[in-house]
Write a structure and sequence with these properties.
The chain starts with a helix and ends in a 9-residue tail after the last helix. Helix 2 runs parallel beside helix 4. The protein is built from 23 helices and 17 strands.
């Protein structure tokens, strides 16, 4: 209740108030009317000669206008007195016009102008002001001794309501237009602010606030164009944090993000204002040097960057400040290029050279020595879309039983049909899949495809198994067991028909974890084979720790048969070891009848190689062994 009591006086004041600007304009209007009236009074034939009171009113209007404007400008006149002052002034203007002998229609025009003006600033004042002005228009001429005709009287009372209506229309329209204009301005301001925000987000990295790849590329294009016109050189430094993945893996991505923001701040403080720093993604940054000279040579900038990055970073971790040390490798590309992508590519190739040289250093781009790195770089870029674009495919190398030379199974081998270089062998791209982590996704696809294909072939009456190679990253991942389970379930392939081949060096990396993982796989029913056995550095005594089904003798020992007594002795030892442990032995790389005879004499169980068959596509295998013209769907 107290709230309503306090608010009531404010409402009354508002009702009786006029804006200060409106009062000042009224004062100016009164002044002009008074001056014009005085000029009219001195003209020959003016009725003011017969009515001296008219001139006095004009003088009053002039003085009153100055007083009104002055008081309003100084904000002396406030509240309801501003309204009273305005009404008195309006009445004075009307009196001046009547005493001056103006006819009723002319007086009506004055009313319209006055009411329109009042309606623009104070709509409620129009209605209140109409009564005294109408009375003044009728009474004052009688006092002046100049009675009006019936026509004049009707004109006055027709014009006054018309003036009131005009004022109200103008007031309503003006108010609506002002509100619409204000709303339009507000919306435009919001749209401009939002557009600028979206534009900033589209061109800047959300984490560090630095220019992103799109903005950096645009600025490189501008700098290249300017360098061509001015004859100067531009340089691009491509930076990568050494060992940043270890920070993410050990401390979490939140700490990694804080470290990236700290790196961005330190790099920004290490370069000139004329240069541009941006984040390409992950832990990769670039620095664009505009107008490189001897004093700001890119090598000097790179050396300074490498030095400042060696200082530890203080990163908050769970309420404490923990120092983190990371080093930086930098690749430098200088000079004109056709476009931004070429300059970025060459700087990235130089970065690879810095990484290969031992990290924590900078390396300028070498155009003569980059052919192999360029190919590797382009392959790595193309690998990102190879699986989605269905460029990978499997080939299958038959495995034979040496006892009767019957078909025992196949090994699934991955191939890449590159759109530029054609079919690529695994040793060209498997290391890149491993280093980038894409081997997880690609390995999952290989496993699913191989199981599906073998299930189809077995449904056609061939009782055989399929071997699939498993990478270290796959085996070290918790979800790998689920990948195998899903591949078997989706294809309906019996688990015993699947053999997973594990490299010997992979087997020995983390023996407890590997033994646990292999035991889980064995529970599924799949078979485990050690690939390239005999080439590793492990002790054969460790072999008993793992649930292994077979040993695969590496091709280098098979190739040396009959040429190297040491190789013959090693093959004999490996076969005898397998026999003692109850393991089957498989020889790979068999290419001659002599090798077949020697392996049979040593009682090797299985063999594969060009002597028997080259790797076949699914179509070729189906046509040769199943007499089918069409492969399994989806292969």
């Amino acid at each position: 209740m107290g709230t309503h009591t306090v608010a009531a006086p404010a409402i009354v004041v508002e009702r009786w108030s006029l804006p200060q600007r409106a009062i000042r304009q009224a004062g100016l209007l009164f002044f002009v009317v008074g001056v014009l009236g005085l000029v009219n009074d001195v003209l020959p034939g003016s009725t003011a000669h017969e009515h001296p009171l008219s001139s006095l009113v004009d003088v009053a209007n002039t003085l009153f206008g100055v007083l009104t404007w002055s008081l309003s400008a100084r904000e002396v006149v406030r509240g309801k007195w501003s309204y009273v002052l305005t009404l008195v002034a309006l009445s004075s203007v009307a009196t001046s016009n009547v005493l001056g002998g103006l006819p009723a229609p002319t007086l009506g025009i004055w009313f319209v102008l006055i009411f329109v003006w009042v309606g623009m600033w104070f709509p409620r004042g129009v209605v209140l002001a109409s009564s005294p002005l109408a009375v003044a228009a009728y009474v004052l001429p009688l006092l002046n001794g100049a009675p009006r005709t019936k026509f004049d009287l009707i004109s006055v009372f027709l014009v006054v309501p018309g003036a009131v209506l005009a004022g109200e229309v103008v007031a309503t329209t003006t108010s609506s237009l002002r509100r619409a204009h204000a709303e339009q301005q507000r919306l435009l301001t919001e749209v401009e602010a939002r557009t600028e925000e979206l534009r900033h987000q589209a061109l800047h990295d959300a984490l560090t606030g630095l220019p992103n790849r799109f903005l950096i590329s645009d600025r490189i294009e501008q700098v290249l164009a300017r360098s061509r016109r001015s004859g100067t050189q531009c340089s691009l430094l491509f930076l990568d944090l050494d060992g940043f993945k270890n920070v993410n893996d050990s401390m979490g991505h939140g700490v990694g993000d804080e470290l990236l923001k700290a790196v961005a701040r330190r790099l920004s403080a290490s370069i000139r204002e004329a240069d541009t720093i941006g984040r390409m993604g992950g832990d990769e940054f670039v620095i664009l040097i505009d107008g490189a000279t001897l004093s700001i040579a890119p090598e000097l900038v790179a050396e300074r960057v490498v030095q400042v990055m060696r200082e530890p970073f203080d990163i908050p971790v769970e309420g404490a400040v923990v120092p983190f040390s990371v080093t930086t490798s930098v690749g430098i590309a200088t000079g004109d290029r056709p476009g931004a992508s070429e300059l970025i590519r060459d700087a990235d190739i130089a970065l690879y050279q810095a990484k290969d040289a031992g990290k924590n250093r900078f390396v300028p781009f070498d155009n003569e020595a980059d052919s192999e790195l360029r190919r590797r770089f382009e392959l790595e870029l193309d690998l990102r879309s190879a699986l989605a674009e269905q460029q990978f495919f499997l080939v299958y190398q038959p495995i034979y039983d040496l006892a009767d030379l019957s078909l025992s199974g196949v090994e699934a081998l991955l191939r890449w049909e590159h759109r530029t270089w054609g079919e690529l062998q695994p040793d060209e791209f498997i290391p890149l899949l491993e280093s980038s982590g894409q081997i997880i996704e690609v390995g999952r696809w290989v496993l699913a495809q191989a199981c599906t294909q073998m299930a189809h072939w077995r449904s056609r009456g061939i009782d055989m198994s399929i071997s699939v190679n498993v990478s270290p990253r796959q085996l070290g991942r918790e979800g790998f067991i689920q990948d195998v389970r899903e591949a078997l379930s989706a294809s309906a392939l019996p688990a015993e028909a699947l053999t997973l081949e594990i490299n010997e060096t992979t087997l020995m990396r983390d023996r407890p974890t590997t033994a646990k993982r292999l035991t889980e796989l064995k529970r599924l029913g799949v078979r485990i084979s050690i690939d390239d056995f005999g080439t590793g550095y492990s002790s054969l005594s460790y072999l008993q720790q793992f649930p292994v089904d077979s040993l695969k003798i590496d091709r280098i020992f098979v190739e040396a048969i009959s040429r190297s007594p040491e190789s013959d002795a090693l093959i004999h030892t490996l076969v005898q070891l397998g026999r003692d442990l109850g393991l089957r032995t498989v020889a790979e790389g068999v290419e001659s009848p002599l090798q077949v005879e020697h392996l049979q004499a040593e009682h090797v169980n299985l063999a594969q190689g060009f002597m028997f068959a080259r790797p076949l596509t699914s179509e070729q295998f189906s046509a040769q062994f199943l007499h089918e013209d069409h492969p399994v769907e989806g292969d």
